């Protein structure tokens, strides 16, 4: 923990300000002040960062590398000050200088280099690894443009580029001396040398991969790990300047652009796989650079690679970094002269893989021709891995050609990345119990029965430091006052809070804290969107990517049904509610964009109807991102987790809401099941189809949306309202949603769950009426949220998969 007093801090800050801005503090803008503070904070971190790295080199502890296409970090300043343990000193010092720390912190752009759950999980994991003294580092891409900025114009999503680097970024340090060269295309010739087959790769396009290192600061423990993000730069040494000298300088610019394109932009679609060459290029680019730099570091500091598999673990976040497997093989064999068997043993020992989705349309497979031409040597290795794997299959499943071709890594002209990841790793995990079960018994069943020992579950988690302590300081104080502060280091100690669930004073405190968070959110929405909401109403929240399987439409339909009832009977006795939505749709996903339009049309109609406004309001908060989540989640009363059972691998916002004392209304899907198991049926509101019912529909058919419409007049009414001009004079506007639900017999069974969802919402109303009961439920949810800290998850990865994290702790 950094020891610094207020006066020293003030002096350092003033000096820093002058140093970087060349003017006096009194002349600075707020943004100047933010920059100086962030820069000073980074300076404070650097010494510990260097020491941590030195210590790792000395102790030679096993290093974990978490490879991910996405890291959704959000803002870093608050996190850095808190984890360094100097936020209070800093706040006081700035106060003396008439500067408000909170006001500076919100000037920082979110670092939004991720789509959603998968990227945010990677960020929570980095925080937990550093805080648990685990030598674990991230490896990814420094996209020039992060996840697009969502604007809502006339109710529709419009995408704008996320220029998060436009004002510079103080956190990352460019390490030009650690740049690597990554080779694309070209041709590979085989030749023999001293009786060994060798490979010569020529005519390739070289790309310079330049690392930017971001410090990942452990919580008050003198550990600073590294997130290394790679940026693509042209390698002019190798460029054919003869064309340039002929005056064809456009060619040089074209060349520069084509190289920089590799790390230009994050793909914004997390649910439909498209075989884009540039994405494959991104994948190999960061994987190859990352592995080369790990090996180079190891060679310099340790020497022989003989027992590398005992010194490092590489985890691949989904299949996106799967090329780590053939890349390691390439380096071991082509550069280190290992035999195939030795290289394979090391590679599979080093690599472990997490699957994050069972949606078939999101599974990555690359056309062989594209793969081969972009990565000729890597393709040869994948082909050989496949050949050897198929040989094993032939021996076991004699004559079962169909099965073998289904299990193969290369088949039907594609390279199947999930198969490569499973074959080339020692551990394959799902992210919640049900998800892992489905992986084992359905999606990857053949591979599971072939490698039963590889498969395991690691239920997701979230860092309680960001999502409770930073996002909800008042609740954190209440926990400290009641149960002490041991939960900070041992989050499951929060269970002691259950003893206070029936305590009237604590209940009242909980209610007041929630009210204060709701008021803050209401002010935020007033300021940013000009909309007034009532903090005394129940805040009913669904925030996540917009996707048919997450069923924002189900939520919207029940609001439409309630609205109809309220028009008929304005005296209807219901709990006043504010329905809050937020989330981005993939730019090419028409149905999801249309869903946003429907929500906004419903909001527009309801919010302008004075007959019902005292009772209901609907808000769509634009540009959902980490910092917006931090404002919304602590203010939620009700957490909507309503995906079609079996479709949501885990969900992580469900855990964030629970930890902040919201009650969950949920299907038994993903980690909702584990939340239910923790809090008990009486402290969560469950509805909807069971897993068996859903799977039966998928396997045997029998679902009829028309039957639902004909059997239930409410369903008939609300589905008609989508297309009868009630919400929009253009009756065609929401046709795609109507057709998806009815004409195409919706594969996510929205209408099937409608009745059960309405009943569940009615239960929510009656629970909320009994304020004491509601608060005690909130307390029980908070008390049981500790197991969903990513510290627990990371401990399970470290002991169960990586075999890391002990040496240093025991020193
Ligand atoms: C897939 C693709 C497909 C190709 C284009 C770009 C792209 C980018 C990301 C993805 C992965 C999507 C998988 C994902 O985000 N899964 C979510 O992972 C969360 C963390 O485990 C989990 O809580 C969510 O339930 C799951 O949907």
From TrEMBL:
CDD domains xrefs: GT35_Glycogen_Phosphorylase
Residues annotated as transmembrane: none
Substrates-to-products reaction catalysed: [(1->4)-alpha-D-glucosyl](n) + phosphate = [(1->4)-alpha-D-glucosyl](n-1) + alpha-D-glucose 1-phosphate
Entry-linked Gene3D superfamilies: Glycogen Phosphorylase B (3.40.50.2000)
Keyword annotations: Allosteric enzyme, Carbohydrate metabolism, Cytoplasm, Glycosyltransferase, Pyridoxal phosphate, Transferase
An annotated GO cellular component: cytoplasm
Keyword Glycosyltransferase applies: yes
N6-(pyridoxal phosphate)lysine sites (modified residues): 656
Principal cellular location given in the protein's record: cytoplasm
Cofactor(s) named in the record: pyridoxal 5'-phosphate
Entry EC no(s): 2.4.1.1
A molecular function (GO) term: pyridoxal phosphate binding
One GO BP annotation of this record: glycogen catabolic process
InterPro entries registered for this protein in UniProt: Glycg_phsphrylas, Glyco_trans_35, Pyridoxal_P_attach_site
NCBIfam families linked: P_ylase
Protein family membership: Belongs to the glycogen phosphorylase family.
Function: Phosphorylase is an important allosteric enzyme in carbohydrate metabolism. Enzymes from different sources differ in their regulatory mechanisms and in their natural substrates. However, all known phosphorylases share catalytic and structural properties. Allosteric enzyme that catalyzes the rate-limiting step in glycogen catabolism, the phosphorolytic cleavage of glycogen to produce glucose-1-phosphate, and plays a central role in maintaining cellular and organismal glucose homeostasis.
Stated name of the protein: Alpha-1,4 glucan phosphorylase
Organism whose genome encodes this protein: Clostridium aciditolerans
């Amino acid at each position: 923990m950094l020891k610094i007093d207020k006066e020293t801090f003030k002096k350092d800050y003033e000096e820093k300000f002058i140093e970087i801005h060349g003017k006096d503090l009194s002349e600075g803008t707020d943004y100047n002040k933010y920059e100086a503070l962030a820069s000073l904070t980074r300076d404070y971190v650097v010494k510990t960062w260097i020491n941590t790295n030195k210590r790792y080199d000395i102790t030679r502890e096993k290093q974990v590398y978490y490879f991910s296409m996405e890291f959704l970090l959000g803002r870093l300043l608050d996190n850095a000050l808190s984890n360094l343990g100097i936020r209070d000193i800093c706040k006081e010092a700035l106060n003396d200088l008439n500067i408000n720390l909170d006001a500076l912190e919100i000037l920082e752009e979110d670092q939004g280099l991720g789509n959603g759950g998968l990227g945010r999980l990677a960020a929570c994991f980095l925080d937990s690894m550093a805080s648990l003294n685990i030598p674990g580092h991230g490896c990814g891409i420094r996209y020039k443009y992060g996840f697009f900025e969502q604007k809502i114009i006339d109710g529709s999503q419009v995408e704008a580029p996320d220029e998060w680097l436009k004002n510079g970024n103080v956190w990352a340090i460019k390490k030009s001396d650690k740049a690597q060269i990554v080779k694309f295309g070209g041709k590979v010739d085989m030749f023999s040398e001293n009786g060994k087959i060798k490979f010569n790769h020529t005519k390739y396009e070289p790309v310079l991969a330049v690392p930017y290192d971001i410090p990942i600061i452990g919580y008050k423990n003198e550990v600073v790990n590294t997130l290394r993000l790679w940026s693509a730069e042209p390698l002019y040494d190798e460029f054919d300047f003869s064309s340039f000298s002929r005056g064809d300088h456009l060619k040089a610019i074209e060349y520069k652009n084509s190289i920089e394109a590799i790390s230009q932009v994050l793909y914004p679609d997390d649910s439909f796989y498209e075989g884009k060459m540039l994405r494959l290029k991104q994948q190999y680019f960061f994987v190859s650079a990352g592995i080369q730099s790990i090996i180079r570091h190891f060679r310099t500091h340790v020497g022989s690679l003989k027992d590398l598999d005992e010194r490092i673990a590489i985890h691949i976040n989904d299949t996106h970094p799967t090329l780590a497997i053939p890349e390691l093989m390439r380096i071991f064999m082509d550069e280190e002269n290992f035999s195939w068997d030795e290289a394979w043993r090391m590679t599979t020992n080093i690599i472990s893989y997490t699957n994050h989705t069972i949606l078939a349309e999101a599974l990555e497979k690359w056309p062989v021709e594209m793969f081969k031409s972009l990565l000729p040597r890597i393709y040869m290795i994948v082909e050989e891995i496949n050949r050897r794997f198929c040989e094993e299959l032939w021996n076991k499943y004699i004559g079962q050609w169909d099965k073998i071709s289904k299990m193969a890594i290369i088949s039907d002209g594609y390279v199947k990345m999930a198969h490569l990841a499973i074959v080339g790793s020692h551990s394959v995990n799902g992210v919640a119990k049900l998800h892992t079960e489905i992986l084992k018994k359905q999606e990857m069943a053949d591979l599971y029965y072939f490698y039963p020992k590889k498969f395991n579950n690691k239920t997701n988690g979230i860092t309680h430091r960001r999502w409770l302590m930073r996002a909800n300081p008042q609740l954190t104080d209440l926990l400290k006052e009641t149960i002490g502060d041991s939960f900070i280091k041992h989050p499951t100690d929060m269970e002691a809070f259950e003893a206070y669930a029936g305590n009237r004073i604590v209940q009242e405190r909980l209610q007041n804290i929630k009210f204060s968070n709701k008021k803050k959110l209401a002010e935020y929405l007033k300021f940013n969107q000009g909309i007034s909401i009532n903090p005394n109403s129940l805040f009913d929240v669904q925030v996540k990517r917009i996707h048919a399987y997450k069923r924002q439409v189900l939520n919207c339909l029940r609001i439409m049904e309630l609205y109809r009832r309220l028009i008929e009977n304005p005296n209807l006795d219901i709990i006043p509610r504010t329905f809050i939505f937020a989330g981005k749709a993939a730019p090419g996903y028409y149905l999801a964009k249309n869903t946003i339009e429907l929500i906004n049309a419903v909001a527009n109609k309801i919010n302008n109807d004075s007959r019902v406004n005292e009772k209901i309001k609907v808000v769509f908060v634009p540009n959902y991102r980490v910092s917006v989540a931090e404002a919304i989640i602590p203010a939620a009363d009700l957490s909507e987790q309503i995906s079609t059972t079996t479709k949501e691998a885990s969900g992580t916002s469900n855990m964030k809401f629970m930890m902040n004392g919201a009650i969950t209304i949920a299907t038994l899907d993903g980690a909702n099941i584990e939340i239910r198991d923790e809090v008990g049926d009486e402290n969560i509101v469950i509805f909807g189809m069971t897993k068996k019912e859903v799977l039966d529909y998928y396997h045997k058919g029998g679902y009829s949306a028309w039957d639902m419409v004909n059997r239930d007049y409410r369903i008939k009414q609300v589905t008609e309202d989508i297309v009868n001009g009630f919400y929009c004079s253009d009756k065609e506007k929401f046709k795609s949603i109507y057709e998806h639900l009815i004409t195409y017999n919706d594969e996510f069974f929205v209408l099937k769950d409608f009745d059960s969802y309405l009943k569940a919402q009615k239960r929510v109303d009656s629970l909320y009426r009994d304020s004491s009961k509601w608060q005690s439920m909130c307390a029980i949810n908070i008390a049981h949220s500790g197991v969903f800290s990513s510290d627990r998850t990371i401990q399970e990865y470290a002991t169960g998969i990586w075999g890391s994290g002990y040496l240093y702790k025991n020193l």
